[in-house]
Write a structure and sequence with these properties.
The protein has 16 helices and 2 strands. By secondary structure, it is mainly α. The chain has a domain of 110 residues: Tetratricopeptide repeat domain (Serine Threonine Protein Phosphatase 5, Tetratricopeptide repeat, Alpha Horseshoe), CATH 1.25.40.10. The chain has a two-stranded antiparallel ribbon. The longest helix has 19 residues.
C-alpha cells in the first residue's frame, strides 16, 4: 500500500471518528466504509465502525465488526471491551463478563473493563465480585466520580443504604451536577424513612434538570409515604405529563387518587401551564 493510500485511510478514520463524536453515526459509518475499501484488513476501521453501530443500538452489526477487528488483531483490548458493552446492552450478561475478562487479561489496568464487568456482576446479583471490581477500578482511577456512583448502586442493591450514601456523597463532591447521584441518594434516604433529606435530593434533581421524570416520580413516592397524598398527586401527574408512556407512573397516580378522600384532582391544564417546580410542597417559579 502506497503512502497516499495510508494518508487517505487515516483521513477517513479521523473524519469518521469526528462524525461519531458529534452524533452523526451514519455519516461516520460512510467514512469507515471508505477506509475499509482501501484496506479491508484495517482492524481500527472495523472497531470504529462497530462503535458507530453500537451508538445506533445496532448491536449485532457492532459485534460482527468488533469480532472482525479481533480476528485481525487478537490483542485488541478495546474491541474485546466493546463486544462486552454490546452484550451488556443485549442483556447477555455472562457473555459480557467473559469479554470484559478477556479485555482485562490483555490490559490488567483497564478501568473501563473493571467498571463494565462490575456493573454486569451487580445486575446478576453477584455483589461481592462487583465490589471487588470497583475497588480495583477506584484504586486505578480514584478521581472518577462515575466509579463511586456505580459502587453506591451496588450497596443500594444490597440495601446497605448508609454505605451507598457515602459513595454518592463522594461522587457528588467530585461532580456537583451529578443528577443521577442526587436521585439515587434520595432513594436511599427515602428507604431509610429520612423523607426530608430525600425530598431535598429529589428537588435538586428537578432543579438541575428540567423535565426530570424520575425526580418527580420519586418525590411523589416520598409524599405518598408521608401520607401527603395531594402533593404526591401533583408530582405523579407532572411525571406522567413529562413521559406519557410511563405505565408505572400512571398506576401510581391512579393509586394515590384512590387515597384522596376529598378535593378535586389537579387538572392537566394546571400542570401544562405550570412554569415552576414543586419545591418542598410548593410550586416555585424558575424565572
Amino acid at each position: 500500500m502506497n503512502q497516499l493510500s495510508l494518508f487517505d485511510i487515516e483521513a477517513y478514520l479521523s473524519r469518521g471518528m469526528d462524525y461519531d463524536d458529534k452524533g452523526k453515526h451514519k455519516k461516520a459509518i460512510d467514512e469507515f466504509n471508505k477506509a475499509l475499501e482501501l484496506n479491508p484488513n484495517c482492524a481500527k476501521a472495523y472497531n470504529s465502525r462497530g462503535l458507530a453501530y453500537m451508538h445506533l443500538k445496532q448491536y449485532k452489526k457492532a459485534v460482527h465488526d468488533f469480532r472482525r477487528a479481533i480476528n485481525l488483531r487478537s490483542e485488541y483490548h478495546k474491541a474485546h471491551n466493546n463486544i462486552a458493552v454490546c452484550y451488556y446492552h443485549m442483556n447477555e450478561l455472562p457473555r459480557a463478563i467473559y469479554f470484559y475478562s478477556c479485555a482485562l487479561k490483555l490490559k490488567p489496568d483497564y478501568v473501563k473493563a473493571y467498571q463494565g464487568r462490575g456493573i454486569s456482576y451487580n445486575e446478576m446479583g453477584e455483589y461481592g465480585k462487583a465490589l471487588n471490581d470497583f475497588n480495583k477500578a477506584i484504586g486505578l482511577s480514584p478521581d472518577n466520580a462515575e466509579l463511586y456512583y456505580d459502587c453506591g448502586n451496588i450497596f443500594m442493591a444490597m440495601k446497605k443504604y448508609e454505605k451507598a450514601i457515602a459513595n454518592y456523597d463522594i461522587a457528588i463532591s467530585m461532580k456537583p451536577d451529578f443528577i443521577k447521584a442526587y436521585n439515587n441518594r434520595g432513594v436511599c434516604y427515602r428507604e431509610m424513612s429520612l423523607y426530608h433529606r430525600a425530598i431535598a435530593d429529589f428537588t435538586l434533581t428537578i432543579l438541575k434538570k428540567e423535565g426530570h421524570e424520575a425526580g418527580y416520580g420519586n418525590l411523589g413516592k416520598c409524599y405518598e409515604k408521608m401520607q401527603q397524598y395531594k402533593k404526591a398527586e401533583i408530582c405523579y401527574q407532572i411525571a406522567v405529563y413529562i413521559e406519557q408512556s410511563d405505565v408505572f407512573m400512571k398506576d401510581a397516580l391512579y393509586c394515590v387518587r384512590q387515597k384522596i378522600k376529598d378535593g378535586q384532582a389537579i387538572s392537566w391544564k394546571h400542570i401544562e401551564n405550570c412554569s415552576g417546580v414543586l419545591l418542598c410542597g410548593e410550586i416555585y417559579s424558575k424565572s
